[in-house]
Amino acid sequence: MNKLAGLALLGTLITLTACEDAKEVKAEAKDAGAQVKQELDNAWEKVKETTHEIKHDESLNELLQQSKAMGLDMYDNGKEVAVDAWIKSKEAAGELTDKTKQKAREIAAEIEQAREDLNEG
After folding, report:
1. What is the pLDDT of residue 23?
2. What pLDDT is stored for residue 58 in this prediction?
3. DSSP state, residue 76
4. What is the pTM of this model?
5. In angstroms, rounded to a whole number, what is the distance separating the alpha carbons of residues 64 and 49?
6. Residues 6 or more apart from 60 whose CB is under 8 A from it?
7. Residue 121 carries which DSSP code?
8. Cα(11)–Cα(5) distance, rounded to whole angstroms?
9. Which of 1, 77, 57 lies closest to 65 in space, CA to CA?
10. Separation CA 42–CA 40 (nearest Å)
11. Which of 11, 21, 41, 115: CA 20 to 30 A from 59?
12. pLDDT number for residue 56
């Protein structure tokens, strides 16, 4: 009977120890979760502070304005180049049309001359 009582007591002791270990693990997990949350909150606050500083940093705003102005200048210059190229292509097309018309007149004259030569012949 002593062995049975001893085993029961040992089982109870193991169960109590396991329950105590589970409580400790749960408490440690809760503490770790709280630490992680605090670290994330701290990181988020740093991000917000840095963003606020960047927004109010005059040199950055100045740089952004300069970049914007340069972009607009490049856009305007690009438009001018595109318009110039379009005008030149239209002029070239006009020259081509004039040359084509001239060549058609020459061919028509040659055909007319060939007909006259056939009629006379």
Report:
1. 67
2. 72
3. H
4. 0.34
5. 20
6. 54
7. -
8. 10
9. 57
10. 5
11. 41
12. 66
Per the rule left: phi > 0, alpha: psi between -120 and 50, beta: everything else, 83 is: alpha
Structure tokens at 70: 């340069």
pLDDT at 20: 64
Residues 6+ apart with CB under 8 A from 54: 60
What radius of gyration do the chain's Cα atoms show? 46
Q: Residue type for 91, please?
A: E
**DSSP code for 1:** -
Task: For 14, list phi and psi in degrees, rounded to 5.
Answer: -65, -45
Is-contact 108 114, C-beta < 8 A? no
**Cα 19 to the center of its chain, rounded Å:** 53
Distant-in-sequence, close-in-space partners of 100: CB < 8 Å, separation ≥ 6: none
Tens place of pLDDT per residue across the chain (121 aa):
566 666 666 666 566 566 665 667 677 767 777 787 888 888 888 888 877 776 666 777 788 888 888 888 888 777 888 878 878 887 777 777 778 788 888 888 888 888 888 888 6
Within 8 A by CB and 6+ apart from 65, the residues are none
Q: CA-CA distance, 81 to 90, in Å (whole number)?
A: 14
